[in-house]
Each structure stands twice: as structure tokens, then as C-alpha cells.
Amino acid sequence: MSNAEKYTQLIKTEAKRLGFLSCGISKAEFLEDEAPRLEKWLKENRHGEMRYMENHFDKRLDPTKLVEGSKSVVSLLYNYYPEKQQQSDTYKISKYAYGQDYHFVIKRKLKSLLNTLQEEIGEVHGRAFVDSAPVLDKAWAVRSGLGWMGKHSNVLTKSLGSFYFIAELIIDLELEYDTPVTDHCGSCTACIDACPTEAIVDPYVVDGSKCISYFTIELKDDLPSSYKGQFDDWMFGCDVCQDVCPWNKFSKSHNEPLFNPDGRLLNYDKQDWEEITEEVFQDIFRKSAVKRTKYTGLKRNIAFLKSKRED
Length: 311
Description:
The protein contains 13 helices and 10 strands. The chain has helices spanning 3-17, 34-43, 57-61, 63-66, 102-121, 137-143, 190-194, 212-218, 240-243, 263-267, 270-274, 278-284, 294-310; strands at 22-27, 72-79, 92-93, 126-129, 148-149, 155-156, 164-171, 200-202, 205-206, 234-236. The radius of gyration is 20 Å and the shape is globular. It comes from Mesohalobacter halotolerans.
């Protein structure tokens, strides 16, 4: 067995032990196919106020510019599909934000994986990424054979759908590389048809500046009145395109205790959310990704949704 095979086997075995759903590996090189797509998307201003998307264009497309001497991109999936969900008639939070902030939970696991490689192999240099640096994580997951890009621009797998986080370890080891899988969206347009704000402008192209997740999390200004009544009661994020996807009927609930929600999150009705105080907000979302929108942001979103009900 060559070193590349041996190290690849070690990484995939350890990833499974750490609780990752799956692990795929690609050669660290320039993403030639993604370059024109990203450039076009930015030129068409699909990123709205997310100006950070314009930064580090070269690093987004070439991991060797992000991590010097890198040879491989290890892509990993981590399940977040919850066993229990919010009651039906309430203001909704995207399922990925039910528990503790995934950035910290998964980053710890990636660092543990890197530490194991260093202990078992010796000097291994690399960096861990969890949706917090200029890395095109979906493109790498697809290239690594973990799934295909759905028409809603989320990565899909036949066995588990799309309710999982994507993370990367970019390292300076030569490894065995995986190959992409085929697209299984076929003629289905469920996600395109269901999007409340028509943000999926073409199959596989999402206009980020029209997405409910963008409005409720990224946008710091007032929410545009032209979208009143179109948010489908989402106060943080949006899962509509994933919820309607036929492949997500295969989703299985996660077994990560840190992703379990506060009971109030599951049981609050609309009035409870409308009356939430900053103290309670800080308590429920103490270690949650929801803190990104802050108390004032969540109250803004709730007021926007409430105003639709009162019109």
C-alpha cells in the first residue's frame, strides 16, 4: 500500500470516528469551471450587500493560494437534521441554527483530525475551514464525490438529502483522489417552484440578494417593503428549497448533542417570539448562530413578519 493510500484510509477512518457523515478528497488546484460562474454571479450583483464575496477572488478559486504548499482538499459532511422541529404555526428558524454554532463544533473536530494526522504521520501542515474563509465548499464537496449540486445550489446526496454542513481540511499531503458523482435532479423543479421570493433565478443559480436567508441574516438595513408577505414566517434563515426537495425525505436525524435545541425554541408560538426580551434571547441563543443577527435583527425580522399579518 502506498503512502497516499495509507494516509487516505487513515483520514476517512478518523473522520467517521469523529462523527462525519462522509469524507471525500480532491487535488488542491485551480477551480477552472467555477471561475467564470463566480465572476458572472458577482458581476450580476447576486451577492447584494455581501461585499465580502468580492474579496480574495483568486483564493476562492485556488486553495494553494490560501494554504501554501497544499496538495489536497479533504471535504467532509456533518449532519444537522433535527429529530424534533418547531411547531407549525410560529416564526421559523432554519434548522441548521437550532443548536450550538456549527462553526465552533465542527472546527474542533477538524482540529482533532489534523492533530491525529500529525501524530500518526509526522509533520503535516494544513488549515481547517468551516464556512468562514474564502473557500468554495460546495464546489469542493462536489468535486470530491460527496454529492451533486442541486438546482437550489445545495449539495445533494441520494442517501441523505442536503441537511448537513460542509467543511474542509486543506493539507500538504498527497492523497488518493475521489471522483464526482452524477446529477440526479432530473426534470424536478420543486425547489424553484417553491421559493417564496423567486430567488432561484435559473436551475443551479441562486440570486443571494433575493434569498430570505440573506434578508434575515446578512442585510443590515431595513427589510424591503416590496417583499412584505413573501417571507413565509421565516425569522432567521430559510429551509423552503430543502424542505420540498424529494431527496430530503431520506434525511435522518443527527446524533450530535450540541445541535439539540433549547426547548423554548421548539415550543414558542408567534406571541412568545413577539414578546421575547433581550435577556431571554441571550439565554436561548447563548451559543447559537442566531446571535449573528443580534437581538435587534431578530426583532426587526419578527416585526416585518407581524406587519404582514396585520395588513
